[in-house]
């Protein structure tokens, strides 16, 4: 399996293990239109490929993912969240949020276990992507942040639904309300990652070894175990995603959001007013 015409992902396979690498084109593998278009297609193919029994998800370059590519998404989001959006524009924003959610959901819905290898920064949407995976490993240089609150956005791609069952309510609320950064040691302590490795190279080797070990087991049994585990929480995740999509389609357009984008482009701290 090859990456074909993909721009944001590179998909390779060795034996029964597929590897999906985030490869830009945004800085730090930031998530732009190409990524959101390609992610469900790639994971849909992996889900249907009987020869694939496990998947490794990683990032190219020095970082896993910087999160949403604000500049790349501005053309799509800008008209829907600035000024005084009409009812039709808010409906379009709701559709867009659900579409972006669907891209991350494709990873969670993949019947093949997904092992996520995080090195460098894992921010915002990157953390949503990691949370959608089954197993997370990190290198010692990894740093995590549920950053959306700093941009006047309620995180809407899955973290608020998935992290509570991974790290618990208290840790999730602390990350969501503060937008603070945590390092690999803290991520291990709270259970966000299963293990930490000294270097990105050692991390990738461990992730691949774990995927190979999974792939050696009976595939239908492994997939059955994943589906049973997912079913335990599926209704809660689905209802939560619908709620946050409706919330953001109504309240995301704000002066604070414009200020967040403006401050980002001007490389200065934002000045939020609550308007």
Which percent range describes the beta-strand content? 5-15%
Radius of gyration: 18 Å
Number of helices: 10
Number of domains: 1
Query: What's the level 1 CATH class?
Result: Alpha Beta
Name the strands of the widest sheet in spatial order. 1-2-3-4-6-9
By CATH, the superfamily comes out as 2-enoyl-CoA Hydratase, Chain A, domain 1
Give the total of beta strands: 9
The pLDDT mean sits at 91
The rounded distance between the terminal residues' Cα atoms is 49 Å
CATH topology: 2-enoyl-CoA Hydratase, Chain A, domain 1
Helix content: 40-55%
CATH architectural designation: Alpha-Beta Complex
Gross geometry: globular
Order of helices and strands: EEHEHHEEHEEHHEHEHHH
Largest sheet: 6 strands, mixed
Q: Return the structural class.
A: alpha/beta
- In the predicted model, the low-confidence regions spanning at least 5 consecutive residues are none
Topology:
Blueprint: E1 9-14, E2 17-22, H1 33-48, E3 54-59, H2 70-81, H3 87-109, E4 114-118, E5 121-123, H4 125-131, E6 135-139, E7 143-145, H5 159-167, H6 169-178, E8 181-183, H7 184-190, E9 195-197, H8 200-215, H9 219-251, H10 255-266
Parallel strand pairs: 2-3, 3-4, 4-6, 5-7, 6-9
Antiparallel strand pairs: 1-2, 7-8
Helix pairs in contact: 1-3, 2-3, 3-9, 4-5, 5-6
